[in-house]
Amino acid sequence: MVDIAIIDYGMGNLRSVHQALRAVAPTASIVVTDDPQEVIQAARVVFPGQGAMPDCIRELEMRGLRAAVLHAARTKPFLGICIGLQMLFEHSEEGDISGLSILPGRVVRFASNLRDAQNNKLKVPHMGWNQVQHGNHPLWEGIDQNARFYFVHSYYVCQQDAQFVQATCCYPQSFVCAVARDNLFAVQFHPEKSQGAGLMLLKNFVNWVPV
Amino acid sequence: MLAKRIIPCLDVTAGRVVKGVHFVELRDAGDPVEIARRYDQQGADELTFLDITASSDDRGILFRIIEQVAEQVFIPLTVGGGVRQVEDVRNLLNAGADKVSINTSAVLNPQLVADAAGRYGSQCIVVAIDAKQIQPGRWEVFTHGGRQATGLDVVEWAKKMQALGAGEILLTSMDRDGSKIGYDLQLIRAVTDALEIPLIASGGAGTLQHLADGVKLGGADAVLAASIFHYGEYTIQQAKQYMAQQGIVVRL
Known about the structure:
- With 211 residues, chain A is α/β, with parallel strands linked by helices.
- The relative contact order of chain A is 0.17.
- The longest helix of chain A has 13 residues, at 195-207.
- Helices cover 25% and strands 31% of the residues of chain A.
- Chain A has helices spanning 15-24, 36-41, 53-62, 66-75, 83-86, 195-207; strands at residues 4-7, 30-33, 44-47, 78-81, 91-92, 97-98, 106-109, 114-115, 121-122, 126-134, 147-153, 155-158, 165-170, 174-181, 184-187.
- By secondary structure, chain B is an alpha/beta fold.
- Helix content of chain B is 38%, strand content 29%.
- Chain B is built from ten helices and twelve strands.
- Chain B has an eight-stranded parallel β-barrel with strand order 1-4-5-6-7-10-11-12, surrounded by eight helices.
- The radius of gyration of chain B is 16 Å and the shape is globular.
- The two termini of chain B are 13 Å apart.
- At the A-B interface, helix 1, strand 9, strand 10, strand 11 and helix 6 of A face helix 3 of B.
C-alpha cells in the first residue's frame, strides 16, 4: 500500500505536485497513478487538476477513475488542488457541465472588465500571488493569516454554504479558495508552487489525521 | 490584493546563464541551478528560462537544468526557446516546467498555440513577443531572436494570441533589451490595455525605478529583468522593497 497516491488522469504536469510532496515527506511512498485500485488502496489521495474542467471530467471518466475519486473523498485524507477543487462541486459554467457533486455549489467565471479600487483593470486569469484569509483547520497550522499563495484560474467556486468554507481570497470581491468537510480538504491555489506557505500546507496534509 | 510579480529571466546557452545587449554580445552570468536557487531565496515570484540557442545538442542540458531546479524550487517555472510542436510543450512540462513560452513558432504556426492550450490549458501557455518600434505608437513583431521582421502589428498579434488561448503575454522591447534605460512604457501600455490576460513587461530594466515604472506607468502585471539581478546590482528583495515604498503591492 502506498502512503500517497496522486491521481493522474492525463491532464498535464503532475511532477510539481510530486516533487513538493517528496520534499515534505521524504520517507513516504508516493505514486502518480491512473490505476483506480491503487487510488482506493492508498492511505492518502491528492486530486490535482489543470486545464479545462470539461476535459478533466471526460478524462477521469474515460480512465474509470470517477468511482475511485468518490471513494477516496469519502473515506481518507483527500486534498483537491485547483481544478481538483472545482470538480468536487455540482456544476461548472466552464463548458456548462456537471461536476462530481461531492459538495454543494457551483463554479462560475470571473466577470470581464474587473477593476480594483484604484480603477486599474484586473486581468483574467487571476494569476499570481494573492493573500488568503483562512480558518483554523489543522491544514493551516503554522501558516500566517493573509499568507500569499500562487493562483492561476479563471473560474472560482460560488459556495453558499459557509460551513464548508476554510479560506477566502479577494479579486476584487471575496471568493472561496479553500473548502473542507470531514476527511476532505481542497484549495483553489497551487500549494506545490507557493514556496514556504505551500510546502507547510502540504506537510500539514501529510500529517493530518481527520477526526 | 494580488501582488505584482517580479520575474528574473535566465537566458541559457550551453548550460550557462548569459546576457546579451540588443540580443547579441553575450556575457557569462553563471550556473543556472545555482542562480535559480539564489533568486528563490531572495523571494522571486517566478523564474523564466529561455534557451537562447535552442540547438538539439543543448536540449538535453536544458532538460537536466529544469529537472534539477524543479526539485529544489517551489515557485512557477516558465521555459521557452525552440518550442516548435505540442510534443515540445509536453516534454518541457514533464521536465518540470509549469509554463511554456512560445515565440517564433507562434508566428510560423499560430495553430500551435491553440493546440497546446487546448491540450494542456491556457494557464501554461505563454506567448512571447519581441517588439520593435517602426513609427511613433506602432510596433512590429520580430522572430528568430529578433532577426526577422514579420509585418505583424504587436497589439493585433497579442490580441490574436489571447483569442487562440495564450494565458499570458511576455512582451520584450527589442529597442530596449539590455540597454538599461527602462522599459518601453508606451508599448507596454498599448498592449496591456488591449488584453484581458496578464502581461509581463521585458526589455530595458536598469534601475529599481524602471521596475516600478513598468507597473505604475506601463500597467504591467509582472516585470521581468535579467542584468540588474544577475550581476549583483540589486537583490529581488531590494527590488520588492523599493516597489512597496512606491505603493505597489508585492509579495514580501
